Amino acid sequence: KTVELENPKIIGQVILTTSNMSVAALVEILQTNKTQYWNKLIKYDKGIRTVSVLKELEVSKETSTVAFKDYGVYLITGGMGGIGFLFAKEIIKQTAKAKLLLVGRTELTPERKKMLTSLSASGRSVTYRRVDITNAEQVNNLIASIRSDHKQLNGILHCAGINIDNFILKKSLEEFQNVLQPKVVGLFNLDHASANLDLDFVALFSSVASWLGNVGQVDYATANGFMDQFAIYRNALVKNKERKGQTLSINWPLWQEGGMSMHQSIQKTLEDATGLRPLEKSEGFLNFYRGLASGYDQIMVMAGDYVQIRDLLSKPHSGHQQALSITKGSITHMERTDLFEKAQTFICKQLAGQLKLSVDQLDPRAPLERYGIDSILSMDLTSQLEKTFGSLPKTLFFEYQTIHELTAYFVNTYTDYLTDLLF
Question: SS3 for 274-301, per residue?
């Protein structure tokens, strides 16, 4: 899904089949699903085709039962991060003498020491442990010390995670691995170490990116998608009496307070395009409790314009535009030269407004970096061009380093359309 958002010319599907399927049957399945490309996750089991879809939940407007217990013991990974810290404060607010264990990878800064002190000010037991959850030995030692010190652990909130935004074309293997580590390896280690504990719940803090994809976050979307599936896996283990406590993966949107930050211009563009707005913390807590009460393996929470969000999620193409369908006609060299000049002037005009420069100030053969184009501005420039050309690759301004190169791309790709537009 992220690939499609970054380059709308690419359409992808994941099709799950049995391993002993014949080549002929596989070809037939591929041909069938090619005509239903809006279905993204398809499974074949005993000849039956099923598709992963969203189900809208009807929930009571009344306040749900608080999931935290008085005198309970709770472990929060990424506990000094934005959302983790908000939930630490919520547990203190909702309980009497609950004990909190916050873990993170790094030593506390002076600022975070003050944050931790503020949690303990009410006389509550709040401790911070420096633990690398991707290290199995450190996680085993952590759980063993909790057993020894507190004799119980009531709940785990797995909030740890990082993102390193970069287009797929530019993302390194090291970046991909670093983003996957806390949500994939970290979760596996936590589950293995706590397998014999009498837990009430394990809450996995996933993201809407795992369902929608997100430009620049292919690894982050993948890592969260793993957690969504792990919740299903662990709940199956609970049914087999191999684990205790409900597992819930929550696909969170952007939070107003805490969580991953987003540049204001991108946030505004996202809200205009999708209806999504950042989640208020009171909404987040309420839906956390609702989710645990629902009995589901996974829920997705969204806030904003209900009609627009519903339309976004119900569209067969995940809400992103379709690129223009262009047929290339044959034109003479003279016509192409004339078209190129007109197209270059047109693109310069489109970009000049966004760059707050006059057209005369733009040198078509100069590197675009001369004009201070960064990742944020490149998104704005792409959005401006999409008003004319429809959905475009979000990597345009990384693949083409000058306006001259950019013009060549548009002339080669949208020949007929530009001819009709400019002549």
Answer: HCECCECHHHHHHHHHHHHHHCCCEEEC
